[in-house]
Design brief:
The structure holds 2 protein chains of 2 kinds. Chain A is mainly alpha-helical. Helices cover 75% and strands 0% of the residues of chain A. Chain A has helices at residues 2-13, 17-43, 63-87, 97-118, 122-132, 138-172, 177-184, 191-224, 237-263, 272-303, 306-317, 321-343, 352-373, 375-379, 394-417, 428-434. The two termini of chain A are 17 Å apart. By secondary structure, chain B is an all-alpha fold. Classes of the chains: A mainly alpha, B mainly alpha.
């Protein structure tokens, strides 16, 4: 405990200029995002590249919704991993549990902000959603259940899971003791409290799993149930969303674990075993996703309607081909890298291939999310309109960059002031001694 | 006492969700009329969400509220 808290206080005391420089850059990017949003709010959605489908030849959903889907996807793997660690009692992965929980919370907040950015009149949108939403609608499952219930559940999980470390940190912290005391909320790490905590988080994990499957499937249904929209209408949308969510989230988690490992010198706690697990899970999920991509491709090209084939041709050979093949290249590249990591003796046990693979699958996931959202609107109309086009405006890019920066900044600040790696539970012998 | 509060919160939470979903939100069925589009009670979705929040809040109560008579106080 002493070592653990000493690390944290050392970190809080030190003021490395590189850290401050990164924070300053991130704050500047967040301000840029706020400026872009203020511009959008005062001038209207006309300052974005979004236009009505059909007569205006545009897309009403663009970069913002692409990133809503992407952020919600990131959150999936975070809480799934945390729940899996708890339910399956995978003790060797416990050090990454809090990183996964925090990833979920941050990603869901960003998803909520991205939805607000997409609304021309956000207040009206939020009030009407709460007033008229149909719980039977996929939109409700996604935009309401995800952002309220799922976020709340994840916050509860993160809070309760952090009480013990808050209490431990309070013992030796030189600053912010009030904050740690508030978080610990009277926790004293007695055997009864530990038992109660284990029971509570176990049931929380059980309750969160169906909620997150529902939330992510309904996100797929938002697109997959639209019968009049070639490119979207597919039974594979929901499972594809869930699997791609797992791919991008685990990839992001691998990058975060590597960054924390390097930054906080935690080579021992965040050992190669963790990367091996992440790498194996990533390989299985990427392979599953590529299988779904091939199945969808064959079905649409072989038996799809002419409109369905048109959209598919645009993806494969048209305006969007560079994104499509770029994304597939990222997934295949990540797969090859992870297989090489196992096959080549000099790469065995290396961390960097998992990190690079994580970055690649995230790039691929963003590309695929964009392709799910946009081409069906610009090229997939059943009505006799001309083909449309969509090019994101600078406001959209600035806002999305601001959101990503906000996410990174929040994560960095949290890890600076709170133990991001859970302190190991005492062994039974230690517990008896303490009693 | 603490356990009783927790169980009550979970039960009430699920009841709220079921009530909002089945009886207060827009009717289930093939939407052939306007009434299938609007909730029977305005803000019925809020009640559904409150139900979800209540269920998960039970975990907070379970951990934070001291149990009188227990060894850890």
């Amino acid at each position: 405990m002493a070592t653990h808290n000493a690390t944290l206080s050392r970190q809080a005391r030190r003021s490395p200029s590189a850290w401050h420089l990164v924070v300053a850059v991130l704050v500047a990017l967040v301000v840029l995002g706020i400026y872009a949003y203020a511009h959008e709010l005062s001038e209207g959605m006309a300052v974005t590249g979004l236009r009505n489908i059909g007569p205006m030849g545009g897309a009403t959903w663009g970069l913002y919704i692409t990133f809503v889907v992407y952020f919600v996807g990131l959150s999936f793997a975070g809480i799934s991993t945390a729940a899996l660690i708890r339910l399956a009692r995978i003790d060797r992965l416990r050090p990454i549990s809090r990183m996964a929980e925090l990833l979920t919370v941050v990603a869901l907040v960003l998803a909520g902000l991205a939805i607000i950015a997409d609304l021309g009149q956000p207040l009206r949108g939020i009030v009407n959603l709460l007033r008229y939403a149909r719980p039977q609608s996929p939109f409700f499952g996604t935009f309401t259940l995800v952002i309220s219930g799922y976020l709340f559940a994840s916050l509860v999980y993160l809070y309760l899971d952090g009480r013990r470390d808050a209490w431990l940190t309070e013992q030796t912290a030189e600053r912010h003791r009030g904050f740690y005391r508030f978080w610990a909320a009277g926790y004293r790490d007695t055997p009864a409290e530990r038992e109660r905590h284990d029971r509570a988080t176990f049931w929380l994990a059980i309750a969160i799993v169906p909620l997150l499957i529902t939330a992510h499937s309904t996100l797929g249904f938002v697109f997959g149930l639209q019968v009049g929209r070639p490119g979207w209408f597919s039974a594979l949308q929901a499972p594809s969303f869930v699997i791609l969510a797992g791919v991008s989230g685990l990839g992001m988690l691998a990058m975060i674990v590597a960054a924390v490992r390097r930054r906080q010198h935690r080579e021992e706690e965040l050992g190669v075993e963790i990367f091996k697990w992440l790498s194996t899970a990533l390989v299985i999920l990427v392979l599953s996703y590529l299988y779904l991509v091939v199945v969808e491709l064959l079905t649409n090209l072989y038996t799809g309607s002419s409109r369905e084939r048109d959209v598919m041709s645009e993806l494969l050979f048209g305006d969007y081909a560079w994104i499509y093949w770029g994304a597939i290249g990222c997934f295949v590249g990540a797969l090859v890298l992870l297989i090489f990591r196992v096959a080549l003796p000099n790469l065995r046990g290396a961390v960097w291939p998992v990190v690079v693979a994580g970055a690649l699958v995230n790039l691929g996931a963003i590309g695929k999310r964009y392709l799910i959202v946009v081409p069906s609107q610009t090229k997939g109309t059943l009505l006799p309109y001309d083909e449309g086009s969509y090019t994101p405006a600078w406001t959209e890019f600035a806002l999305v960059i601001g959101l990503i920066s906000l996410g990174v900044l929040s994560y960095m600040l949290f890890t600076r002031y709170f133990p991001i790696v859970e302190h190991p539970q005492p062994e039974p012998a230690e517990r008896e001694e303490a009693q | 006492m603490r356990r009783a509060i927790v169980v009550t919160m979970v039960v009430v939470g699920f009841v709220l969700q079921a009530t909002a979903f089945l009886f207060l939100a827009a009717p289930l069925g093939i939407p052939t009329e306007v009434r299938y589009s609007d909730p029977r009670l305005p803000f019925a979705p809020v009640i559904f969400i409150l139900g979800v929040v209540l269920v998960f809040s039970a975990a907070l109560v379970y951990e934070l509220v001291p149990d009188r008579g227990a060894s850890d106080g």
